[in-house]
Specification:
Number of helices: 11
Order of helices and strands: HHHHHHHHHHH
Shape: elongated
Strand content: under 5%
Radius of gyration: 20 Å
Mean pLDDT: 91
Low-confidence stretches: none
Structural class: mainly alpha
Number of strands: 0
Oligomer: single chain
Bound molecules: fe (ii) ion
Length: 271
């Protein structure tokens, strides 16, 4: 699951970027750069074997690998609840959702590998703490209602973040995102349906459990859209490259607008 909040550079990465910009370039390289810029401006897709600037390549490796890590790490808090699902039906749904997330991680590692970074390098960066993953998965899952709320809000926010990536200028990433987005929409719906069942057919204490879970996950879900536009330093470059299509604040507002109506149908209040 991709979140725009990961779109920030470490001091080490900033130094690399500055060094790359300061480097002298040959006439041939300048020509390649101009051709690349023209293709981006024309809305073309860039394939793995095409020439691309190093900065573009590094930005994509960082974003795709962090996205992949988030899919894999995201399996953990939900995996906790497989053995505690209340019915066979819910257990089957939860299992298949978690398997989907594992699949998303694998497609994305494959997309990052097309940029010349091996899976071992990607995993090593995760294990040594150099690569980030979405901090939403550090929050504990305390109740069964969290399984519904994660689907509804966390996968819901992920879809908002990810749908624009289906038109990302790097073609292998865009292609992976098309299938991923279809599966994410199942994740969102299964979560919402589980909550709706508890709210309409459940007991008073089940309804209270749902509300308590919504209260805990609401603000972390909004933070998945990243810092406000004015404080999002990488956004401008990523927008120019067609890696990012919609700003953090616009996406966050779209999510709030959609979610407020769904909360009314559900009968929960948003904090
Ligand atoms: Fe996913
Ligand atoms: Fe998902």
């Amino acid at each position: 699951m991709y979140t725009q909040s990961m779109d920030t550079l470490s001091p080490e990465e900033k130094q690399l970027e500055a060094a790359a910009k300061a480097k002298l370039r040959s006439a041939e390289e300048l020509q390649l750069q101009q051709d690349f810029d023209a293709r981006i401006d024309a809305g073309d897709f860039i394939e793995a074997k095409d020439w691309m600037p190093e900065h573009y390549r590094r930005t994509l490796v960082r974003q795709i690998s962090q996205h992949a890590h988030s899919e894999i790490v995201g399996m953990l808090p939900e995996g906790n609840w497989i053995s505690r699902a209340p019915t066979l039906k819910r257990k089957a749904i939860l299992l298949s959702k978690i398997q989907d997330e594992g699949g998303h991680g694998l497609y994305l590692y494959a997309a990052a590998e097309t940029l010349g970074t091996s899976r071992d390098q990607l995993l090593d960066a995760l294990h040594t703490g150099k690569a980030k993953y979405s901090s939403i998965f550090n929050y504990p899952t305390l109740t069964w209602a969290d399984m519904g709320v994660i689907g509804w809000l966390v996968d819901g926010a992920a879809i908002m973040n990810q749908v624009p990536l289906c038109r990302c200028s790097f073609a292998p990433y865009a292609r992976a995102m098309i299938r991923i987005c279809r599966e994410e929409s199942f994740h969102q719906r299964q979560g919402y349906e589980a909550l709706l069942t508890m709210m309409t057919q459940g007991t008073e204490s089940q309804r209270a459990m749902v509300q308590e879970s919504v209260n805990r996950w609401w603000w972390p879900s909004l933070m998945m859209f990243g810092p406000p536009d004015a404080e999002s330093p990488n956004s401008e470059q990523s927008m120019r490259w067609g890696i990012k299509r919609i700003s953090n604040d616009d996406l966050r507002q779209k999510f709030v607008d959609a979610t407020v109506e769904q909360a009314k149908v559900l009968g929960v209040s948003l904090p």
